[in-house]
Amino acid sequence: MLQVKNMSFGYHKKPILKNIDFQVDKGEHLSVIGESGSGKSTLLKLLYGEMDVHEGSIFWKDTQILGPKHNLIVGYDFMKYVAQEFDLMPFITVAENIGKHLSNFYPEKKRKRIKELLEVVELTEFSNIKVKFLSGGQKQRVALARALANQPEILLLDEPFSHIDNFKKRSLRRKLFHYLKANNIACIVASHDHEDVLPYADRMLVLNKANIVANHTPEHLYKHPKTPLIASFFGEFNVIDGKIVYAHQLKIVDQSNLKATVKKSYFKGASYMIEADLNGNSIFIENEEPIEINKEIYLITKQTQP
Ligand code: ADP
Ligand code: MG
Fold it and tell me: What's the pLDDT at 304?
């Protein structure tokens, strides 16, 4: 449905994306991850037609997405984009912002639609508040609801929960991604948080050094991280004998040929992260209990999934 072919782009000759190829099907959820500065936002802006690609093409079904050189008005009805810096109208209410692009022709239908969207982003009680009085996270939720208002076919979200605190984030994320699936709306979500990705994304695309270095299901990439970069996205990990081993895959046993000395225990909630010295390097082990400093421990690698 979305077809990106051989796309390249750079700012002032500095290449940011090189020969990018991927596609997104109807209703599919694609996560785009990569370090800060890897080009996630640039990619979304190109997909939206906010800038001109230097090479290659972008199609949504039969419509070619064109940048400002070839298309006077940026944007298409079937595609909505919520930027990292969202712009709302501060002097009108939350409900008015959300309904901004909804037709006034059927006021009852419009009212119902706004009500439904307020529920998705959990802002019902703020409906009549002017946007200028909202917090950053609340504004981000208004921007999301406004993007959904006219039921796009594809939604581009740039770090959509970055301003939203942990108290609200989980339920909002569940509601939003559930809403998108239920309505068969494709989405491309730039993110640096694995909790946005693992439970929800159908596929994840990893950007590094202007290239796509992985494009697979989150489960596959989690279980078979090809590089430390990919593993680091998911959590604490070690490289032991050239193999990537997550902290939770190390187990403390009575005796083994992997001996380490405990340096510190960090409380993590459900478990402790033990930092230990292994031949002069720090390694990390997830353990149910803290361990006293300088204690010698023996480790084995738990069976990894095939
Ligand atoms: P990400 O969203 O992954 O953090 P960006 O797409 O924002 O990355 O940026 C990718 C690279 O392009 C960075 O090195 C950034 O400094 C550079 N960049 C972003 N926007 C511009 C711009 N308007 N002009 C010049 N360089 C830019
Ligand atoms: Mg960005």
Answer: 52
